[in-house]
Amino acid sequence: MTVTAEPTAAGRALARLYDLDLVEDPGDLDLYVALANRTGGPILELAAGTGRVSIPLAQAGHRVTAVDLDPAMLERARLAAEQAGVSPMGRLELVEADLLGFAHREAGTFRLAIIALNSLFLLATRDAQLEAIRTLSRHLAPGGLAVVDVWLPDVPDLARFDGRLMLEYVRKDPETGHEVTKVTSARFDLTSAIVDLTSVYEEGPPGEPAIRWIRRDALRLIGADELRADAEAAGLIVENLAGSYDMEPLGPGADRAILIARRP
User: Residue 159, Cβ neighbours under 10 Å: how many?
Assistant: First the structure.
């Protein structure tokens, strides 16, 4: 595991709460396992977070490199990998790095390269998003596949991004036993396609003072046409642009765009 920074207390808390955000399975893992079985390894995941995708792929027998900028996320990934019986020094390599400009020593050999579940949004400019897809392309072997998955909000979704407070959930954290309330506020800027998102988590035992953690993100939305154009600009051949994890065709009303593109 390549880590250069010590996680902060806030970083560790937000990484733990990120896992709580995703306690309900988004439904994408079967797709990645199927693609990995098609391509074989090695596999690269950028913005891998706590290993939600990378660890199951390593468990399935593939060699996986998981890259993330956040040391607290990677710390949780290491612990989760050990609990899953996957050695971070074996089939799973965890690397702390900025995906922009990232260059792995085995670049050009990967059979599958992934940016999963809206992680592309965390790059808040068009140029940065394009560079991320170029990073996928540079790391692929000829014939290798790049996969990028993004949410496609509709007009009512965007209308709610006006700064109002929205209750996301009340859940019990299985690690701490605390009740966690998550409230968000988002503002959408049409001119930049950026959503300024503030997430407020309050946690603690019932009847006792709560601890508050705050996360702020600038998320740049990207549409299906722009995603296709970026893949082509990165030198990839688009094989599929689907509207669901079942690979149904992208059409009106689809709430996701899942790009699958091949390096020639």
Answer: 10
